[in-house]
Amino acid sequence: LHGLPPKSTTNTLSFFVIYMSHHIELSSVGYYLSSICNSLELYFPNICTIHSTSIICWSLTGMKKLHSSQPTPCKQALECDDLLKIITALPLNPPHDNLLFVTMLLTGFHGLLRISELTVLHTITKCTTHKLTLCLALVVDGAWFSFTLPFHKSDHFYTGNTIMVQALPHSPINPMFHLHHYITSCDHAFPLLPALWLGSSSQPPPTHGLSPAYRTS
Fold this sequence. Notes:
By secondary structure, the protein is mainly α. The chain folds into two domains: 10-66, no CATH class; 80-213, no CATH class. It contains eight helices and three strands. It has helices at residues 10-21, 26-40, 47-51, 54-66, 80-88, 96-111, 175-189, 210-213; strands at residues 139-140, 144-149, 161-166. A three-stranded antiparallel β-sheet has the order 1-2-3, with helices on one face. β1 (139-140) and β2 form a beta hairpin. α1 runs antiparallel to α2, α1 (10-21) packs parallel to α4 (54-66) and α6 (96-111) crosses α7 (175-189). It is elongated and about 85 Å long.
């Protein structure tokens, strides 16, 4: 079909990988190649050795990276217009959970944080106070505020990370404005609790329960 010699070489096997990667599922190419090599071993005793060479492995890996059949699923990125829609949907006197949600949302957006860095695990047995962000870590200045994220397993010095978020005066998505409202509500409801992020249940918001429990509409 392609004018290649019948004798199996590293070139013919790598060409087979590249050719088949365009016609069948990438996850099946390796199985097809192994099956063919087992069938041809009687006629070409060294074909299994050729199959295990680096160029064949690299060809398989390269085609999987180049033509991945299952792209990485990603959430739709938030934009400023999305934040504005959420804020305008707030009632005139929003309850505490709404203040918490909006403050965490703006803090995570402007601080480039993942939701797991602001919430706690849903599984109680895996929760630990060492991973809570504390009120004592919050520093508020006129132009910015900062807090310390607790350390994690990849933090070799166990010092945590300091997150700084800049204020946006005269902007409806100013994180400083909403932080002040949330802190006022939190200090009034839970003056003695140490955690920075607290819902109306006096508990830190769980990762999997954030969206339904702290909706803004």
